[in-house]
Amino acid sequence: MVWLETLPDDWWKSYQSISLSTHCIHELNIELLFIVRSLLLETRTYARACKRICLCAIDFQAALETRNIYRNKNFTNYVQQLEKTSISVLSLIDQVDQLSSKTNRLELTIHWLAIDGQQPIISDNPPANFSEDNSEEKKQKKSNGTKILPNELINRSSTLEKLFQIANTSRRKNYVYQEHIHPLTKNNLTMKPTHPRNLPLRRFHANNNKVPCIESIQTCLAHELSIEQQLYFKLLTESCFNGTDKQCADAFHCFSSDAALQPLLPRLLLFIALGIQTNIHLHDLSFILRFLSILKMLTSNKFISFDKYLHSIMPTLLTCLLCIFDLAKNDPILSTIDHNSSNNYSAVWTLREQTSDFISYFEDKYSNISYFTERICSIIKRNLNNTTTTFSIVYAYILQNYKQTKLIEVDFDLDYNEQKTLFNQKINELLGKYNGYIYDIQAQFANINKTFHTIFHHLATNDNTPARLEMKCIVAIITEVNDAISNHDSIGRQPEEYLTFDTHTQNYYDQILLTLP
Amino acid sequence: MENTNESQDSPDIAELICFLQKNNLKKTEVCFRREYDSRSNQISSVNVNDYFVVYSCLSNFILNSSYQLELIQCLFPLFVHLYLDLIEHNSTDECQRFYNQFVDSTFQSLHREFFSQLKLISHSSKHLYQCPLTNVFRTSRFFLRLSMTSCNELQNFIDSTKSLTKFDLTSSQISLLLSIFQQYIKIDIDQQFFTPSNIVRFQTVEQPMTPIFVHTTVANTIQFTRLYTGMFPLQSSAEQKRDLSSLYPQMNYNRLPNNIDLNNIPRLGPHKLPSICLYSLKHSKQTINCVTLSNDCRLLAIGFQSSEILICSLNPNHKLYSMKPATELHHSSNINILDTKSDLDKTNERLLIGHTGSILALAFEPNKQLYLLSGSQDCTIRLWHLSTWSCLVAYKMHFQCILDVTFASNGHTFASCSIDGLVCLWTIDKISPFRIYPEYGHSGPINLVEFHPNANYLASAHCDHTIHLWNIYHENSLVRIFNGHRHQISSLRFSPNGHFLASGCWNGEIILWDIQNNLQIAHLSLHKQAISSIEFNPLTGTLLLVASIDSSISLWNCFMITKLYDEKLTDSINSPSSSSSSNKILLNLFKTKNTSLFHIRFSKENILYAIGLIDRTNK
């Protein structure tokens, strides 16, 4: 409660015409302050009787009414208007009723906050946030350890010492327990004699609409996951790749919305990482894209926190972003005959974009992790200096940086010249490759080169609006180049990659342009 | 010269003397002058500087003493009384200076609520007795519970100030110090030797104790006698029986209806934790003031600011039946069976209208759930019948808003408390109370009342942050004062075995009390905001569940706390041999999504039902 120190100065303005002596004004001031302060205290009494977190106008009104001071009429009308709305409980039983009238009614919902002392993971309960709890408890533990046990206290009473010891150990145990084992898993880890007669008691609630029921069954303790969880994992992963369309959609829905996936997360991430790594070697981009879409679904699930498992997924994502796909090896006959070949190249570009999406997403979300951004940045930079960099990697790099204005500052403020020459060199290399074939392509590349220069210039001066325009320009140029390349069937050596922009990418660019700061 | 002085002091007196001289009233003038001189001498005899000297002298002594933890209790009443004295002598600037100089951080943190109220009257002495808190302060004596050793130390100090001149106190300063000690402080010797603490504190650092202040009349008579804290009421005294209980049917202690299979109910304890079922109220257009559940958790009562009460059934199969109207009854009277079930009007909710002010308290009759009590801002308590859905009685005694009502376990006695500072005890069939506490008259508002499970005692939470325990059957009725909270108390609950009392306050601290020995067993501080409701698990009381308006429920191992306390009482602990797995005190903390919890209650199936309100403040 904010304490009223003095009455506001302009309060006296209306009384200045009436000539009062200063002594009189002083007395009045004291008297009024006393009345207002006692009113505030009474207001607090009412608010506290109703267990409100903060004071309401309505409590102040009650305090006034007990002193027989009645509010003015404008306020009355307003309150009466409110009072006219019907009071009724939208009962949880009548489903029909719930549908028919939505507004102006009191609603009563019901869910389990705890089952046998454990909080079930359902959308009604807040998601378990491990990192916050732990850091808090660490702090508390530190302060406990230092403050609680002055030596003289220990000497005087052994009881006290023991009590503090117990309190401390219990805290620590609690903390250890919470860090490593998820409540749901913990539920299964502890052997619980569930009385068979308990079950009907739960079913008593099962017919109410919103009551979830997680039945815990005694399981063998060899594996950290329960049998149900293992089955669930198997079902999910299999239906993503082998299932029918519907199964696949269901699985994707589960990934994006199931609150109980957290214990499965390390395994799922491992599954994705290994899957992507294998498929990079096998050059199967469609599989990689599918894995990435699983990851996409997982990131959209708001009940999952990735922070403990980033180490398993980040290297894979970086590989996707930076590695060279030697696509020439991949079925040259098919690629020449089929139109899919060009799709395959466009898939590389999509892949780069998606991975850069993920990386920036993780960077945004877990920026509190120390050196996370810096390490990613340094890895990308190191790769850029590598001689084997391809155009698409440069492209990916630019993409990556473009989304992260922070990174741009870091890179381009420091070694702008170096970057520029490096990029020039890269572009020239590419130009050299295509030099013998097509003149207009060369011209286009010169254009690209020029535009990149201007972009770099704008970025270096932190001017985003022109950079945005130039980016648009590049998009246009690249599409032109693609057209030009696709027109020339006579190219003997496959260019390493087409510069492709399908509609998806185009949309994506539009999005960027909209969201740029 | 005198004239100039007077005219400086007050122009009124100068004018009066002029008037007397003008009208040649010599004798009256002489008389008046004599009176005025004597009065002005009296005023000037109060040397403001004395206060500063006395206080700094005593605080120096106490802060350097080795018994600081106990003796620091003296500083608080001394500070407040000196401050109030200064205000009484109208030297407001001096008292501001006194406040600024001596109020230190420990005071501020310990008595933050008190000091904010003290500032209420920092400008004028007229308000001293208008403000309830300072009024209580001036009319009470302080109870200091000191050990023999620290008491001797204090005694020695006071003696030395009298005899020696080493503290350089003038006689007026010594008399000031002694008068405050005599007038306002009473020392109670608690034990022989000084021990730093006998409280199990969880997650808190060691804090100095706070003094109790009790009304002067009580302070002279109070005795802490042995209490009967068993579960069942005392039936030994025939007089008591005649007094109240014999008129009424025997109490029904069986919480469970007969048709429920007893084997199906889980026995809760530290190894079998409870399930919690949370009801959340949403989209309330009305301001909800209070919510309560009936003892069998079938009915929910909601009290609104707009003076209506809403009763709704939580069980879909359990409709709220009502008696037929008289006309209907006439038509069907040829069938002589009164069939209450074949009712026309079956709904899941009922609205009770009758109060003229906002509802502040609700209580269901515990045994049959047939009656509901409601306390309102309109100073009346109403009793509602839950099958006719009408008001039976309006009880009128309080002259200010009712803050709490509660039923005793027998179901025919109830208690109410109010802002006017009175606790009234009623039986439902009489329209006037049979007891009114406290006997010495009202002080500040009384926030809560709660009956002991054996219905012999009544606990009430007062505005000076103490809990008073009253013996209902006895004349000398105040039997305990529990003191230790530093914020307004927001929740009270007796343990089912009747030995302990748990109380929560507005800064989220919970204290567990041993009622018999008047000791604090444990301080549990985890919650950030007010404790709204406390519940022990039924029958055994080995678990303590605490709901707070910071939207979380915490689960404590009460068995462990009491076990540690018992060990300490008997001094039987030598080795920390107790198994490490079972000695966690905080068992779990359940957070909700922004649902500030109002009320929790165990149902007969041993499921904890909680009621919360969603997003009230954001609207």
Describe the protein's architecture and organization:
- Chain A: It is found in: Nucleus.
- The complex is a heterodimer of chains A (517) and B (619).
- Chain A is an all-alpha fold and 517 residues long.
- Among the domains of chain A are: 9-71, Histone, subunit A (Orthogonal Bundle), CATH 1.10.20; 228-412, Serine Threonine Protein Phosphatase 5, Tetratricopeptide repeat (Alpha Horseshoe); 426-492.
- Chain A has helices at 22-49, 57-66, 73-83, 95-100, 130-147, 151-156, 158-180, 183-189, 198-206, 227-241, 245-257, 265-282, 285-300, 310-322, 332-337, 340-365, 372-385, 391-403, 405-414, 416-435, 439-460, 464-487, 503-515; strands at residues 89-90, 106-114.
- In chain A, strands 1-2 form a two-stranded parallel sheet.
- In chain A, helix 12 packs parallel to helix 14.
- The longest helix of chain A is centred in the N-terminal third of the chain and has 28 residues, at 22-49.
- Chain A is flat.
- Chain B has 619 residues and is an alpha+beta fold.
- Chain B has four domains: 17-42; 48-194, Serine Threonine Protein Phosphatase 5, Tetratricopeptide repeat (Alpha Horseshoe); 274-282 and 484-618, YVTN repeat-like/Quinoprotein amine dehydrogenase (Methylamine Dehydrogenase, Chain H, 7 Propeller), CATH 2.130.10.10; 307-325 and 338-483, YVTN repeat-like/Quinoprotein amine dehydrogenase (Methylamine Dehydrogenase, Chain H), CATH 2.130.10.10.
- Chain B has 15 helices and 31 strands.
- In chain B, helix 4 (48-64) packs antiparallel against helix 5 and helix 4 packs across helix 11 (171-184).
- Chain B is globular.
- Chains A and B meet through helix 1, helix 2, strand 2, helix 5 and helix 6 of A and strand 5, strand 6, strand 7, strand 8 and helix 15 of B.
- Strand 2 (106-114) of chain A pairs antiparallel with strand 5 (276-282) of chain B, so a sheet runs across the interface.
